[in-house]
User: Fold these one by one.
Assistant:
Number 1:
Amino acid sequence: MDCIFCKIANGQIPSKKIYEDEKVIAFHDISPEAPIHFLVIPKDHIQSVNEISEENANIISHIFLVINKLVRELNIEKTGYRVVNNCGKDGGQSVNHIHFHVLGQRELKWPPG
């Protein structure tokens, strides 16, 4: 499979990792849109939200537990942050591997664009 996030998850492509366990990896975005901007991805390839099933749904709750841990470590849990998932072409998904952006340490406007 030629998936850049799979290659990051298995160490073929380097990343600025901030967290890793047996299920997920979190790393800084290479083009940050906020002072804090990292991604959390499952190590197993799931293309998008459309591919979530009863068999793999537990990874999503695990991702959010990791996000909770990291925003506390980065001290943005009180000031606020945004968690973004893009799904499909019209949703702005540029890598076909489910991922969650976490942005913080600046005021984020709505609508996002």
Number 2:
Amino acid sequence: MLELVRRYVSGYVSLTNEEFALLAEKLEVRTFQRRVQLLRAGEVEYYMNFVVAGLVRMYFYRGKTEVITNIAREGELISSSSSFLSGMPSHYYIETLEPTTLLSITHDNLDEIYGKSVRIERVGRLMTTQFVMQKEEWEYECMRLDTRERFTRFVERYPDLLQRVTQKDLASYLNMKPETFSRLKNQIKKRPAVVKMSIK
């Protein structure tokens, strides 16, 4: 389980065994069943979570409609970042979509190990930068791409999520109506397979 985190962190900075031990000591293993709310709007986010197994979504309400802003799977982070960093109440709900195992760290514990290791602090800074860049790119795509392009781009990147997440949730995440998502998905199923032929 910790090896997954080590591989993830090594994508940013390679830590020594001693440095990684500092981080691992502060990580909490948390397990949840399907459809458990980890955070409700109005609560403070105390954890940054690394998904070891399962799926987690983050959303808010526009009127009575859920608007999903993130779906995190294995090897990804999820948290109400602004609340985690500021200590202010979150605008978001966070909920498991499958039985889920998380490795989590509190803000206080993260600050503590930042004070003990400059390299771990650098990991945190790089991860935060990457998160902000990905969020901005996703927001840009949602505004720039039309409905079909957003759907196609998503399917190319995350084909497994078509089987693991409900159409309603995926439609919300992709900012389209469920019936539009269903139509586009059916078009993919009906698309004839491409047969590659070798020319001799």
